[in-house]
Amino acid sequence: MSLRSPGPILGYHGIGGPDSFLTVREDDFAWQMAYLARRGFRVLTLSQWAQKWRQGMGPGGRAVVITFDDGLASVWERAAPILERHGFCATVFPVTGYLGKHNDWEGRGPAPALPLMSWAEIRALARDGHELAPHSHSHPRLPELPEAAQADEIACCRRLLEERLGRPVPPLFCYPHGRYDTRTTAVLRRLGFEGAVTTALGWNPPGQDPLAWGRIVSRWFRRHRLLFALFLEGFGSRFLLGLARHHARRRQRPAGG
Known about the structure:
By secondary structure, the protein is α/β, with parallel strands linked by helices. Helices cover 38% and strands 16% of the residues. Helix 1 runs parallel beside helix 3. It is globular and about 45 Å long. 42% of the residues are buried. The C terminus is likely disordered.
């Protein structure tokens, strides 16, 4: 790990429910959060992390960011009480067009049908100190859309979040399905976004493109507590990074997002 790195960004979707690449068992998530607390990790919001990353310095101690994609109901029902137990806050990227519904954007693909939070639950998360930021309005594969439609998806999501929360949201974005291209990043820059997270595995050294931050997404460790600990204790290890990528190619897991 670079001494100038603020720490890794963890990526989750749902907690509990049907077993899939989108979910982590509730007891495993509880163990992971207890591990962070026991090992003295400082949990930052993505905004706090981004500020330290731009300054090119670490937080004065070990740190980690916890992110949730989509806004699934289990974030409020199962993850939030566990986070509260440890005094942790997460950054949540909801799909505004599907709140109160299910993740039907996946059709009949590999992802299970999972409910999303309501707007009332989103507001409750914000009141409890969790950070909310855009993830698009309808969860499309953005590079498949014209540039104007990409801008509409991103701007609509941000506008609805700000209207419903009654305050600005941070200029941070999460790519649906982990997909983006140069037109997408151009749209984000034009709209004033300062950072975006992907589904690519990475630890974000200084100088990296802020619109291509990597994460340690839960599919890398969701069934393996030891692997979770290795990622947290050994991020920056080229061997561990290569091993995880080799494992992913063999399993050919969907990217999610």
